[in-house]
Design brief:
By secondary structure, this protein is α+β, with helices and mostly antiparallel strands. It has 13 helices and 15 strands. A hairpin with a 5-residue loop joins strand 8 and strand 9.
């Protein structure tokens, strides 16, 4: 998408993006068939078997934003001008443009209907490398892990605050990627910094101390490993051995928070935990050398660099690992954020967030035009000739009609041609850790002498308690 600059007569103009000119499109055009062929012939070299959703998602991306695959026809009733707007693929986990619109819609909905205006923290849980491979083949583990995290945090907050019937609000997002596109499954959660009583009253926590995190890590490690034993992914002896390690490999972070009243900061935090796996602007493709360079927003903590070099097929393989399974939730809601609790509280319990529609399109929250405005700051239905409002008069999808219209308007008609399969590059990269967030932090002011948890003996699961 291109936002043409505003003039004295008209606001900024929307220009549909040209997907075919991006390095990502060119990489897929040159090497998608090679990737699919090698994935079918030698799955291990490509990091795993060919999941059906991978093939369909990559193929649909090659149609996203191209007029030849369908478009919306818009008309201005004031001056009679018409223009065509290409359709999007709307697939999850790969197309940056579609994810940006999905993220805008989702963050609006969470602020308007799910999360009350209270204090929140981001909790990030990562686990040992030994366990990561299980998430490639069991897409239910994310749900099970995040549910255990909710149970542990709820028990801890109830014990600390003396509110056995209260519960926090939690939004959990699955992430599978590290800084440089490695496969690194972990969970991000936005959790209220306190609990809600059954009548909706909020009781706020004071602080989260380092010793609190250490105890919570031990509890989570014990319960998560027990879950894996029950699912026969680990043996009981493996669990016992891992709990005896000096460093468990589980990491729990709660250093980032948002104060009550900071709804735009909360929006940015929500967008961070549900962000896209990769940056489109960070991809550079050298066709002659057969090399792809990916540049992250920040340097990797262990490697000390913000760039990673890939062969083209290796790069596609790295991206394909982060395409989510179909019909599986990547976002889950717990406690006071769950629809059942919101239904009990009734309408008006969650105050509306700061409206993103001020000055933008006037359609409903989820309208396509408003999402474009929310992401790019321009209204796609503003007429470039007179500046008035245009309307969509038809959606054209049928193949015999589309090329006739494009030919009449002297617009490109040819379909993208994929290069035939050829020899692949090197294998998929290793995996490493989660990157840190750049969201704003707040400083707790609770007395450092206050203890919220008591340590249990040895490496058995600690019991929550309050020092009297």
């Amino acid at each position: 998408m291109i936002a043409l600059p505003a003039t004295s007569n008209f606001p900024a103009q929307y220009e549909a993006r040209h997907a075919q000119g991006t390095p990502l499109f060119q990489i897929l055009q040159d090497h998608l068939e090679t990737f699919l062929a090698h994935l079918e012939q030698d799955p291990e070299s490509m990091g795993g078997y060919l999941r059906p959703e991978v093939k369909s998602t990559l193929e649909k991306f090659m149609e996203c934003g191209i007029l030849r695959f369908g478009f919306a026809r818009t008309h201005c009733d004031d001056c009679g001008h018409e223009k065509l707007l290409p359709l999007s693929c709307r697939f999850r986990g790969f197309c940056p443009s579609c994810h940006a619109r999905r993220l805008a819609e989702w963050s609006d909905w969470v602020l308007d209907t799910v999360l009350p205006d209270v204090r929140y923290r981001q909790w990030v849980l990562s686990w040992p490398k030994r366990l990561r491979v299980y998430f490639l083949y069991d897409d239910d583990l994310f749900r099970a892990f995040s549910h255990i995290v909710y149970e542990v945090l709820t028990e801890w907050m109830q014990t600390v605050l003396g509110e056995p019937d209260a519960r926090p609000a939690m939004v959990a997002c699955d992430q599978t990627f590290g800084t440089l596109l490695d496969y690194h499954p972990h969970s991000h959660m936005v959790v209220s910094h306190g609990v809600f009583r059954p009548d909706g009253t909020f009781v706020e926590m004071t602080s989260v101390r380092p010793e609190d995190l250490r105890t919570l890590e031990r509890v989570l490690a014990s319960r998560l490993l027990t879950l894996l034993v029950r699912r026969e992914k680990l043996r009981p002896g493996d669990r016992k051995a891992m709990l005896s390690w000096p460093h468990l490999g589980f990491s729990l972070d709660a250093s980032v928070g948002v104060h009550a009243g900071s709804r735009e900061e909360l929006r940015r935090l929500l967008c961070y935990i549900y962000r896209h796996p990769f940056r489109l602007e960070g991809i550079t493709y050298d066709e002659e050398r057969g090399q792809v360079v990916y540049q992250a927003r920040r340097a990797h903590g262990l490697k000390g660099t913000d760039t990673q070099e890939f062969g083209p097929v290796e790069f596609i393989s790295a991206l394909a690992r982060h395409i989510p399974p179909p019909n599986k939730h990547q976002v889950r809601y717990y406690g006071a954020a769950h629809r059942d609790f919101r239904a009990e509280m009734g309408d008006g319990w969650v105050p509306p967030g700061i409206s993103p529609s001020s000055g933008g399109p006037e359609e409903g929250r989820a309208s396509w035009a408003r999402l474009i405005w929310r992401v790019y700051g321009v209204d796609p239905l503003i007429c470039p000739k007179c500046g008035k409002r245009m309307r969509i008069i038809s959606i054209i999808l049928h193949d015999p009609i589309v090329p006739k219209i494009l030919n009449h308007l002297k617009l490109p008609v040819d379909l993208p041609v994929l290069a035939p399969a050829r020899s692949s590059g090197r294998g998929p990269p290793d995996e490493f850790e989660v990157e840190a967030t750049s969201c704003p932090e707040f400083v707790d002011e609770a007395p450092s002498t206050e203890d919220y948890l008591t340590d249990g003996p040895g490496w058995e699961e600690p019991a929550f308690g309050v020092d009297g």
